[in-house]
Amino acid sequence: MDTDCSLDPAQSLKVQVQEPEFHSQIWGFSHHPTTSSSSSTKKIVCTFSFSLMTPSRSWKYSERLGKSQSTVAIIMKILSPLPHPVPTSIKYPVKSLQMDFKAQQTLGSTIDKATGTLLYGLASRLKDPRRLSFLVSYIANKKIHTETQLSAALEYVRSHPLDPIDTVDFEQECGVGIVVTPEQIEEAVEAAINRHQSQLLVERYRFNMGLLMGEARAVLKWADGKMIKHEVDMQVLHLLGPKTETDLEKKPKVTKPRPEETDWRTAKDVVENGEAAGQTVSLMEQLRGEALKFHKPGENYKTPGYVTTPHTMDLLKQHLEITGGQVRTRFPPEPNGILHIGHAKAINFNFGYAKANNGICFLRFDDTNPEKEEAKFFTAICDMVAWLGYTPYKVTYASDYFDQLYAWAVELIHRGQAYVCHQRGEELKGHNPPPSPWRDRPIEESLLLFEAMRKGKFAEGEATLRMKLVMEDGKMDPVAYRVKYTPHHRTGDTWCIYPTYDYTHCLCDSIEHITHSLCTKEFQARRSSYFWLCNALDVYCPVQWEYGRLNLHYAVVSKRKILQLVATGAVRDWDDPRLFTLTALRRRGFPSEAINNFCARVGVTVAQTTMEPHLLEACVRDVLNDTAPRAMAVLESLQVIITNFPAAKSLDIQVPNFPADETKGFHQVPFGPIVFIERTDFKEEPEPGYKRLAWGQPVGLRHTGYVIELQHVVKGPSGSVESLEVTCRRADAGEKPKAFIHWVSQPLTCEIRLYERLFQHKNPEDPAEVPGGFLSDLNLESLQVVEAALVDCSVALAKPFDKFQFERLGYFSVDPDSRQGQLVFNRTVTLKEDPGKV
Prior knowledge:
Elements: E1 2-6, E2 13-18, E3 25-36, E4 43-53, E5 57-61, H1 68-79, E6 97-98, E7 102-105, E8 110-111, H2 113-125, H3 132-140, H4 147-159, H5 167-173, H6 182-195, H7 197-203, H8 209-219, H9 225-240, H10 245-248, H11 281-288, H12 312-323, E9 328-331, H13 341-356, E10 360-365, H14 375-387, E11 394-397, H15 402-414, E12 418-421, H16 443-454, E13 464-467, E14 479-483, E15 497-499, H17 501-511, E16 516-520, H18 527-536, E17 543-547, E18 550-552, H19 559-567, H20 582-588, H21 592-602, E19 609-611, H22 613-627, E20 630-631, E21 633-634, E22 637-642, E23 651-656, E24 666-671, E25 674-678, E26 699-701, E27 706-715, E28 721-730, E29 740-741, E30 748-755, E31 783-791, E32 803-806, E33 810-814, E34 824-829
Parallel strand pairs: 4-6, 9-10, 10-11, 16-17, 18-19, 20-32, 22-28, 26-29, 30-34
Antiparallel strand pairs: 1-2, 2-3, 3-4, 4-5, 5-7, 7-8, 12-13, 13-14, 14-15, 21-31, 22-25, 23-24, 26-27, 27-28, 30-31, 32-33, 33-34
C-alpha cells in the first residue's frame, strides 16, 4: 500500500491509497475553524469530516470526541472487517472534533446515524476483536438496533469466548427479531402510572419520572427507550395537565443528613482469613477498592485480555468443582529479606479481598533462589503476617511443587514450547539481546540436555531452559530453569536446577487454584507469560490483576539498599526503627491496627502511590490515643524541692490511665517533697507568652491538686541552675494557674531514644534530587539517645512492645533491648505532627 499524506492545520488533510485490485480510494479530512460563543471565552472548534470510497460503498462519519488519534483508531477499527484497504496510521492533531456519520451501500441499504452510533459504541467497547465482524453484520442488517441490544450482545460474546457462537441462543439473549409494539409500550406505561397515581397527583411534575420509565423498561426489556419516554410524557400530561406556575418553581433543596463517617479506628480486631473478630465491613470495602470490578470465580474469561483456548471452559468447570466457587488469593513473598510497608498493602489486599468475599488466602513462599534465602526471613515473614492480624488458610512453598514443575517443564519441551539454551547471563542482559542460536534445536536434543542439567552435568551458567514467547516489555524467551549448586533449605541437595519466577509463579497459582492472582504493577510485563504458560500446558489459568505499589517519601525499602545501610553502620539492622520495614515499625511502636488502617485509607489503585510519612503517623496517633495508657516522664530533668510539703511522707496520687475516660482505670504514683520537672518548664527570664514556672508565675502539678510557686533558684559554680525551691498550695485555694506541667517523684531511670527521619530529602533514591546517592542524604540527627531520662514507677513492669503516652511528650514503646531494672523506650510519634514535616 502506498500512501501520500500532507497536513496543514488551516487546510485539509488528504490521504490517497492506491491498491491494484481496487479503484483509487481517498480518505479526506477537512478542517474548518469556527467560533463558539457558548461561553464568555471564545474557542475554536474544528470540523472534521471523513469519507472513504470503494467500488462497493461510500463512507462518511462524524462524532464529537476529545482526542483525534483515538478517534481515527476507532474509525479504522469499525472499518477493518469490511472488504477494503485502509491506511494503517493517521495523525490529526486537533483537540476537538466534530464528525458527521453517514454510511451508504450501493445496493440500497442505508446506514443511518443511529446505526453509526451503535457501530461507534461497538468499536469503543468491544474487547475481543475476533467478534467484530460478527457483531458489525448484526448492526448493519439492523438485527441489533438499540443500545440495550448492543449491551446484551457485548455481554454475550464476553461470556461465550469459544467458537462457534450459537446464533440461535445469541439472538434469543439479545432480543433479535423481537418487536415491541406501541400498544405494548402504552399498556406498560399505563400500568406503571396506575401504581403510582396517588403520589403523582400529590407531587405532580416533581415526581421522579425515571421510576415510571424504569418499571416500563423492566416489563419490555427490548423496547426503545425514547419511545418509552415519549409515552410517559404523553400519559403524565394527560393525567396532570399542563405545568402550572407552581410546577415550574424550583424544587427546594433538601439538606440531606450527612452519613456518619465510619470510624475506621474501631477496626482493631485481629483478622483471621477464615474468621474475623468483629472487623468492620467498611474497612473491608476500603481494602477492596478496584476489586469490586474483579471477575467472579469461574468467570476468568470475562476479564479483558484473558486468553482462552479450546480447553478453557472445561478447565474452569473442573476448577469450580474443586473450589466450590470460593475466592482464593495468595500472598507470595520471597524469603530473602524482611517485609516492608509496601508488603503491608499487599497483605491487606490479598487477605482482605479473600475475607471480604468469604474466601481463603494462602501464604506461599517463593523459595526458588536458595542462594539468598535464610531461615530468619521465613520466620520474620510469618511473624509479620500474624502481627498484622491475619492467619493464612495454609502455608505453602514453591518447593512443595518442584516435582510437578519439573514434569511440566519436560512436557513443555515435548510440545516444542521450550528449549535448552547455552547463552550466558551477560548475553541476555539489555533491551535487545541477540536471539538464541539454539531456539530451533530438535525436541529430543533439548530433552536429553535438560535431563543432563537435572543430573548436574553442566556448570552454573552453561545451560538454561527457555520458553518460546515474547513478553509485553519485549523480553524474548524468558528463562524457566537454571543451574544452581546451592543446597536448598527444604530439599537439600535433591535439586541442582531451580525454576524462575516467570515459570513458577503462574503454575503454583494454577496448582493451588488461585482465583485472583493479585500483584503490583511492575509484574504487568509478565502477564503474557503468565497466561501463555498455563495455556501452553493446558492447565487451569488464573487471572493476574495488577495494582499500584505503595511507597513512602523519605524512605528506601530496597533489600539491597537496606543491606548497604546496615553495612555502613547508618542503621543497626533490618529492624532499626528509622526504617520502614514491618519489623522496624513494630519495634518503633507502630500498632498493626494503624498500619492496616493506613493501607485502607490509601486504598487499592492501579497507579503507584507515594505517601507522606506523616499520614501514616496520623493513623498511629489515632490508634494509640485510644490504647496507650498515660504515664509521666522527664527527658531533661530539673530538681524541685517543695519546702512546705503538706505531709510527713510521700502521698499516693491516683492518675487516670486515660484522662478522657476514667472508666478505664487508674494507676498510682508517689508524690514527695522532691520532684523533677522538665528543664524547659522553668525560665528565670521568660519571653512574652511563656506560661510555665517563672518568678511570680506559679504552675500546677498535673493530677496532684497542688500549685507550686518559685521561692529560690539554686545555681552551681558555673552559674547553671541546679535546683529550685518552691512552696505549694492547694489548687482550689487561690487563683487558677496559667499552666499545669508534668513531673515525676521517686522515679525510675531509663534510656529514651528519639527518632527523626533517616533521610533529608523526599526522594533519596532520585539522582536529580540527591546527586550523591541515598547514602549521602542521611540525616545525622535521626537518632538522639537520652541515657538518663526519668519515668514514673507505674511502668516498672512494662514488657517489650508495651506502649504508653508520656504526657506532653509523645507516644513511646518499650524496646526489646530493655533489661530488668533498665528500661529502654523508643519514641513512636510525637503528640502532634511537626508543622515542618507536613
